[in-house]
Amino acid sequence: MNRQAQAVVLLLLGGAVIRASVTDLYLRYVKEGLRPFLIAAGLLLVAAAIMTLWYELRPAAPRALAPVGGPGTGHDDHGQAHHEPRVGWLLILPVLGLLLVAPPALGSYAAGQAGTALGSQQQSDYPPLPEGDPVQVSVLDYASRALFDRGASIGDRRVQLTGFIATGADREPILARMVLSCCAADGRPVKLGLTGDVPAGLPDDTWVEVTGRYSDRLGRDPVNDAEIPYLEVESWRQVPAPKRPYD
Amino acid sequence: MSTDTDRAAPADEPEGRSAGGGVDTRERASEPAVGEPPRRWLGDRIGSVEVLAALLIILIIFRDPIAAALDDPRLQTWTTVFVSIMVQAVPFLVFGVLLSAVIAVFVPRSFWARALPRHPALAVPAASAAGVVLPGCECGSVPIAGSLIRRGVTPAAALAFLLAAPAVNPIVLTATAVAFPDNPEMVLARGVASLAVAMIMGWLWLRLGRTEWIRMPRRPELDDASRGRAFWAAVRHDVTHAGGFLVLGAMAAASINVLVPERWLQTLADNAWLSILALALLAVLLSLCSEADAFVAASLSQFSLTSRLVFLVVGPMVDLKLISMQAGVFGRRFAFRFAPTTFAVALLIAVGAGAVLL
């Protein structure tokens, strides 16, 4: 891969990163806080590409490197063949991933592969739920309150949470939401069992908004043997996938 | 005309590179007078870019079949994980490369002679301490260590920095404290063990390391008369080079992520020694970034604290994407000695630290 081609690849990579971070595409892969760094890195990549092209294409600029005349005149591209990295061709793959494929956020398949993220260590005193009936909580918040203070801070309140449908232990639908700490490679599911008016007949990965109350039933995740709290569903409706797919 | 294409091919064709290079020299030697450098150069240039353009056009035309082929949930998860590792790593890679280009071009050699203790054995702890202060990620620290060596820093110190920078820094330690709220001793154990590994590896290199294992490619452009040109050449080169190896590592890590279900780990967790070994290997295979691995370790709750400490100490120092990048920057002979040794040392130190501190 010669320098011009490298410049083009850098330009594409920088452009793909900038495009992903000015739209909401990047939220499928990383945390929101990374956005300014992504934009800065994208701009730097574009700058590196432009500077490379500028230095390469400038007509007959004083080339400090190229020996003028003499036997070595074959230009510096003989040396270039030795130190210009071939492995750079691979950088096309993330460009394609971002520009052409743009894979969806992690869903039910990843949730089925990993154990629920609520292991042992959690706090046990939770602040009271915010105002509202039903009160909007995240799957993670509900699950940790239900699991670690046995629903004491939920009480008899009606809660509303959004997640996607996945298949649980006994082929029953469960509500799941992935949590990220850095990027989707470390994404872990938070799983919630459903009782009451269980959303039936929905394919996996369908996003739903469920309203319900605390249930003291507990299940077990077959993957890591951790406890899975339940929710007593009163009503549910199908919703489009949220802008921020992760909790 | 035919010679033109012959010469253009080697630069474009990844496989035939070395063979092509040989042909190139012979032909050049045989026709020194006839050679027309500008035309040759143009042919060469258009070659690589043309291949790229054709490739992109083909991919855009076949966009729908490609998307359809990725419909399988496993492939889709693979793509998501791969893309997200790359997106996560790009800022760290770019900023690391920028810093390494500044070191390579703007920081004079004499600076390192003054900044680091003269004796290599003392330079090792100093470099480790520098690694602690700089919040780096493993993707950025490989090119930085590379340009430190290039600028005359003793390899032992540069390698200690390479290991310490991603493993112990304020961001990583804070993340560990947040992930293990009930076990603050985990933060201490991680910091102490990682620092110890970095320094031991530095000192080991002083005793056993051979300079010829590190084979760093010649980089004539770094000595360019124009600092600006040298700087941007270094940035361009390091991003394509280290970035390309990062892609390799990210593909490997995404494959492990999808192919190894967590269920398998469950069966290993019950045996104390097996679980330590399993999590050490998992850390190598998963190639998580060091800012995130504490949260994953916290979620592996079926494993003992010591085995999770091993996961946290090994991960930032040896993993697939690091091995791939080290092989690219320092040469394969180096990486295939350095990575297994680091793995063994990190495993032993982490188990020791776990026994004492946890």
TrEMBL record, chain A:
<dbReference type="InterPro" id="IPR048447">
    <property type="entry name" value="DUF1980_C"/>
</dbReference>
<dbReference type="InterPro" id="IPR052955">
    <property type="entry name" value="UPF0703_membrane_permease"/>
</dbReference>
<dbReference type="InterPro" id="IPR015402">
    <property type="entry name" value="DUF1980"/>
</dbReference>
<dbReference type="Pfam" id="PF21537">
    <property type="entry name" value="DUF1980_C"/>
</dbReference>
<protein>
    <submittedName>
        <fullName>Membrane protein</fullName>
    </submittedName>
</protein>
<keyword id="KW-0472">Membrane</keyword>
<feature type="domain" description="DUF1980">
    <location>
        <begin position="156"/>
        <end position="246"/>
    </location>
</feature>
<feature type="transmembrane region" description="Helical">
    <location>
        <begin position="36"/>
        <end position="55"/>
    </location>
</feature>
<keyword id="KW-1133">Transmembrane helix</keyword>
<feature type="transmembrane region" description="Helical">
    <location>
        <begin position="87"/>
        <end position="106"/>
    </location>
</feature>
<keyword id="KW-0812">Transmembrane</keyword>
TrEMBL record, chain B:
<feature type="transmembrane region" description="Helical">
    <location>
        <begin position="156"/>
        <end position="180"/>
    </location>
</feature>
<keyword id="KW-0472">Membrane</keyword>
<feature type="transmembrane region" description="Helical">
    <location>
        <begin position="272"/>
        <end position="288"/>
    </location>
</feature>
<protein>
    <submittedName>
        <fullName>Permease</fullName>
    </submittedName>
</protein>
<keyword id="KW-1003">Cell membrane</keyword>
<keyword id="KW-1133">Transmembrane helix</keyword>
<keyword id="KW-0812">Transmembrane</keyword>
<feature type="transmembrane region" description="Helical">
    <location>
        <begin position="49"/>
        <end position="70"/>
    </location>
</feature>
<feature type="region of interest" description="Disordered">
    <location>
        <begin position="1"/>
        <end position="37"/>
    </location>
</feature>
<feature type="transmembrane region" description="Helical">
    <location>
        <begin position="334"/>
        <end position="357"/>
    </location>
</feature>
<feature type="transmembrane region" description="Helical">
    <location>
        <begin position="239"/>
        <end position="260"/>
    </location>
</feature>
<feature type="compositionally biased region" description="Basic and acidic residues">
    <location>
        <begin position="1"/>
        <end position="16"/>
    </location>
</feature>
<dbReference type="InterPro" id="IPR052923">
    <property type="entry name" value="UPF0718"/>
</dbReference>
<dbReference type="Pfam" id="PF03773">
    <property type="entry name" value="ArsP_1"/>
</dbReference>
<feature type="transmembrane region" description="Helical">
    <location>
        <begin position="186"/>
        <end position="206"/>
    </location>
</feature>
<dbReference type="InterPro" id="IPR005524">
    <property type="entry name" value="DUF318"/>
</dbReference>
<feature type="transmembrane region" description="Helical">
    <location>
        <begin position="82"/>
        <end position="107"/>
    </location>
</feature>
<comment type="similarity">
    <text>Belongs to the UPF0718 family.</text>
</comment>
